[in-house]
Write a structure and sequence with these properties.
The chain is of the alpha+beta class. It contains twelve helices and 21 strands. It folds into two domains: about 110 residues, Uridine Diphospho-n-acetylenolpyruvylglucosamine Reductase, domain 3; about 230 residues, 2-Layer Sandwich (Alpha-Beta Plaits). An eight-stranded antiparallel sheet has the order 16-12-14-13-19-20-18-21. The protein has a five-stranded antiparallel sheet with strand order 5-6-10-8-9. It has a four-stranded mixed sheet with strand order 1-2-4-3, with no helix packed on it. β1 and β2 form a beta hairpin.
């Protein structure tokens, strides 16, 4: 199989490593013979999870066939390289939707399993792995193996959320959910501070299947944590006006054609944007209909939006704090960010439900905060270490699919099932063939014989 050595980054554009790329054309061409390798779908993780400095990266983007779609049972079997963007037009038109979706549709099915992605409905539906019926994968010895919650269950639990480190995910069978339209009925609620924000997100009278909160990261003092909670559900046919077609059509994309200079994302520009967004989105008092695309994937309408952060890239810092300490922990994180005077263009808060099957999966019952922080100087990494200390102090963890700089010690403190995961890894990959820049940085699997 021909290979190409090139400098590569993921969506955050940091870090950049020299990697050896191989792109198989067919599922039959997938191979696990290399001594150091990691599979990569669309490269939409933010840090170094899909990078392999001086090692092999297996690009799966052409391993993207839809193999079986059961219209009656609502099950889908597909190769791991197929993207959510390729799946949605087919299943939505037949009255089905993904049970869980992350904030972008430009991710692969295999990536969704490897990161055990979560969405706006985690507090009700759990993460992606809870809806995976089976996985076919290629292990380090080249053997194709199937696993599921009932067959090779240990391997299944190590692979869901295992960041691609147990083997190459080749096929995924997934249970879908029925819908009556391609629209979402949305209700926005405004919070003037963090206390109101938590009160709204815990209010069962306004809770819906999906909920997510935008937070004004520039708000300070009595307004710290102000924002808008956006709740929604798949619209029923009788909730659609007569002139609405039941299938919403995605809008055409705009594109950012160049890297923004650093001054364009200054404190002033972000503060101005946040004030306008708070007024505009928070001002929508009545329920309204949204196409599924703008509700679930708002940034996907802007191609290359990561160029907004300039050539040096950015870090998305995402953590979860358990319910018992969530308010104090999130408040401390927002206060630390506010005091740092480092603006986050995007600050998103979601409520998470109970842990799932994945031994290295990110979600736990609590609240997750995601921040986009441009890289301008080394002071950012000092701040991020301070955020880690807050997260650890409150019993939380950092999301590996977004991480670019966590320490190995912090990782082990945050992921209590790691030793259990490692035992399974050592059985299926005793020579640690599947590794990435992230796994080596965090020492994941490095104890393998």
């Amino acid at each position: 199989m021909p290979s190409l050595i090139t400098n590569l980054s993921s969506w955050g554009r940091y870090p950049v490593y020299s990697c050896k790329l191989e792109r198989p054309e067919r599922y039959a061409d997938l191979s696990s013979t290399a001594s150091s390798q990691i599979a990569r779908g669309q490269g939409r993780s933010y840090g170094d999870a899909a990078l392999n400095e001086n090692g092999r990266i297996l690009l799966t983007e052409r391993i993207n066939r839809l193999l079986e779609f059961d219209l009656e049972q609502g099950t889908l079997r597909a190769e791991a390289g197929v993207t959510i963007a390729e799946i949605l037009p087919i299943i939505v038109s037949k009255g089905w939707f993904l049970p869980v979706t992350p904030g972008t549709k430009f991710v692969s099915l295999g990536g969704c399993v490897a990161a055990d992605v979560h969405g706006k409905n985690h507090h009700h539906e759990g993460s992606f792995g809870e809806h995976v019926l089976s996985i076919e994968m290629i292990l380090a010895d080249g053997v194709r193996t199937s696993c599921s919650p009932s067959e090779n269950a240990e391997l299944f639990c190590a692979t869901v959320g295992g960041m691609g480190l147990t083997g190459i995910i080749g096929e995924v069978t997934l249970k879908l959910i029925p819908i009556q339209s391609g629209y979402v009925e949305v209700q926005n609620h405004t919070a003037e501070n963090l206390e109101q924000m938590f009160s709204l997100m815990q209010d069962e009278t306004i809770d819906d299947r999906y909920s997510v909160a935008w937070i004004d990261s520039m708000a300070r003092g009595a307004r710290l944590g102000r924002g808008v909670v956006m709740c929604g559900h798949h619209a029923l046919k009788d909730e659609l006006p007569n002139n609405f077609h039941s299938i919403s059509k995605p809008k055409s994309n705009r594109s950012i054609p160049f890297d923004f200079p650093s001054w364009m994302l200054s404190q002033l520009s972000i503060a101005t944007f946040n004030a306008l967004y708070y007024q505009r989105v928070g001002g929508k008092r009545a329920p309204f209909l949204s196409g599924y695309d703008p509700y679930f994937y708002p940034l996907d309408t802007i191609s290359h939006w990561n160029r907004m952060y300039g050539k040096r890239g950015f870090v998305q810092y995402q953590c979860v704090i358990p319910d018992s300490t969530a308010f104090e922990g999130i408040k401390a994180l927002l206060q630390k960010l506010s005091d740092s005077r480092r603006p986050s263009f995007l600050a998103v808060l979601k409520r998470l439900g109970a842990e799932g099957r994945g031994l290295l999966s990110f979600p736990m019952a609590g609240y997750t905060l995601a921040l986009d922080l441009p890289i301008r100087d080394e002071g950012l990494f000092v701040l991020l270490n301070e955020l880690d200390e807050i997260v650890l102090r409150h019993g939380g963890r950092v999301y590996l699919a977004k991480d670019a700089r966590l320490s190995a010690d912090s990782f082990r403190s945050m992921y209590p099932h790691y030793e259990e995961w490692l035992k399974i890894k050592n059985v299926v990959d005793p020579n640690n063939k599947f590794s990435s820049s992230l796994s080596r940085r965090l020492g994941i699997g490095s104890e393998a014989a």
